[in-house]
Specification:
With 281 residues, the chain is α+β, with helices and mostly antiparallel strands. The chain has a domain of 196 residues: Glutaredoxin (3-Layer(aba) Sandwich). It contains nine helices and eleven strands. The protein has a five-stranded mixed β-sheet. It has a two-stranded antiparallel sheet with strand order 1-2. The chain is elongated and about 95 Å long.
Amino acid sequence: MCRLACLLAWWLFAASRLYAAPVEASALPAFGLDQAAALRTSQQAIGHQPADYTLRDRTNQPRSLAQFRGKPLLVNFVYTGCFRVCPTSTRALHRAVAAMRDRFGVDQFHVISIGFNQPTDSPMAMHAFALQQQIDDKNWEFLSPRASDVAALARDFGFSYVATPIGFEHTLQVSIVDAEGRIQNQVYGDAFTADSLGEPLRRLLSGSLLSTSVLARSSFSDVLSKIRILCSVYDPRTGKYRVDYSLYIEIAGFLTFVSTLLILLLQEWRARRAMRRERAS
């Protein structure tokens, strides 16, 4: 009985000490990503051009970021040791890319996935990751940077990550880069859709396709492809892009108006020229 009383007294004393002197939150080990800071870092990258890093593709061949300029580029970061989030987001990105390629064309933009956990995310590991996600896209590269470049590369793209006891916590984003290599948009989440990625990409493609210099270098088939992109709209019912024939009608109406105006101006010019000749004679 005495032993039981002593144990009870010791338990009450320990409990009183525990509640009387709580552990400060700052003294506890902190894990995880500062979401607010990560979002600021990501947004600050918009408008900037990442440096021209050299990475290794799945065949261990060097590939520089400058090689992907000339067309829009989608960039995301993964680590191959991730068993849930990275595979899930990559498969979602794959579905969105397939829908956009179906409408915009297979060669209108590039995609690269960068393995940031170096040296674990080697070219061989990235090759295996792509196979696991069943990605066979000639314009989608899986790249491994040098370990010494990872921090600067991530900073240039506004990508944040932090090691945790179970792997990494990192920003879930896709950076949309224009043909000159400048970041134009950041799209967030792990369930990317053709709408969330396709609309900023379509606006980017539409802007570049309408430039005089691009049109001057384009063949007739290229011009038709460009018009096809301009006349594409996202259908949330099917999750795909479709043709908006009203845009075709608007374009046809505009071209008809311009043609009619040019004909009238030409007729007016000829009439004035004929009048000047009559007066001269």
